[in-house]
Amino acid sequence: MATTIKKSLIYQLLFALCVAVPYLNNYEFTFAVWSFVALITLQKKYTLSIVSQFLCFSTILLIAIVVSFFKEYRAFFLIRDITYMSKPIFGILIGYQICSKNFQKVFQTIIYTGLFIAIAHLIILFIAVVFYKAVTVNDIRFYGGYFSDFEVYSLIICLFYKKFEIKIPFKNILLIGIIIGFSSFMYLARTNFIQFIILFLAMKGFFVLDKKSITIIASLILAGILAYSAILYINPRRNGHGLEALLYKIKIAPTEPFKTKINRDDWKDFNDNYRSYENIMTVRQVTKEGTGSVTFGQGIGAQIDLKQKVWLGDMELRYISILHNGFMTIFLKSGLLGLFIYLTSIFLLFRKSYSEVPIVRTIDLLLLGTGIFLFFSNWVFMGVYNLLDSKSIFIGTIICYKAMAIKSYSNQIKND
């Protein structure tokens, strides 16, 4: 019994380590940890659902590698792109493999890992406010981080802990939920707000189309339009402080990643719509090289020429190999073929199991919400290819849990 508990604890710690390490903002270290953990937890058997995901991301990478044989890129950029595009592969394997060895405590592990990250985030914010006088939205995000998808997932699981059959006392789950919820809010990230709304609606079953869900979704859309109209009426300033700065970011959100014309000479237009500028330059560069480039991409090592230097994080760059838009990144590396395969990996999450097991139906809803959210996440923040998050680990984990829950139920029926 003691040996079982010890092994379970080791896998819980490995899970927490893999989820937490991207927050250090050192991708080389993240890649080293993830590849090591993926290797030491390898299994002999895998379910079809996880193999399908693995093949999707592996095929995207393979296409990009094959295309690069016909190009002349520097070895540094080739190796770097291979590690970048391998991230979701390692992530889904880690999530699946650790879950298979820690099946009974998966959701508790997710909650407590989210709690640990939330506490660390709030401590950092406290230090930033007290010692560095970080009071503006930009300062808070600079010191505390720009987003945290994993914390939102942890919060959703806390809110629906009964559906996930989690045996944690209500008082404890309430306190944990408040801490994680406050931390999640303090990232002041629009994508995390959208993520929470989508996952919450999914868990309530509102994306399963019927008269009730259509009415609710329509009402929410109307409320969103009215709220956005109010923000436009208020017309928050670009250089505003506090709440005004957040409202300005919401104001420009609908056009920021979708504009088709950007005035490079107008620094406000360029900065506010930089994500769109990346997309425009990617489409121009890829289509310029003809049908082959559009179909199969420009391979690993390919970079987009922005035609001018821009500050991205702490670096001033003119050539970039990874874009904010995950779909455009795949289009650059693997073309329309890679993009089709990537979309397939997302649609695979929508498949219902039609199981009688309540926890399986709950996970189906969570996967449905995750798939919908990935469309937003990819458009503005690279989706599972983001170097600073662990969505792929979470996806691998819940895919594994779903398969094991179905298997456990089947074995129980046989024994009865």
Main beta sheet:
2 strands, antiparallel
Q: Count of DSSP helices?
A: 17
Q: What is the beta-strand fraction?
A: under 5%
- The proportion of residues forming helix, as a percent range, comes to 55-70%
- What is the string of helix and strand elements? HHHHHHHHHHHHHHEEHHH
Distance between the termini: 26 Å
Summarize model confidence as the mean pLDDT. 89
Structural class: mainly alpha
- Residue stretches low in confidence (pLDDT < 50, at least 5 long) are none
User: What shape does the CA trace take?
Assistant: globular
Which oligomerization state do the chains in this entry correspond to? single chain
The number of strands is: 2
**Strands of the largest sheet, in order across it?**
1-2
> What's the Cα radius of gyration?
22 Å
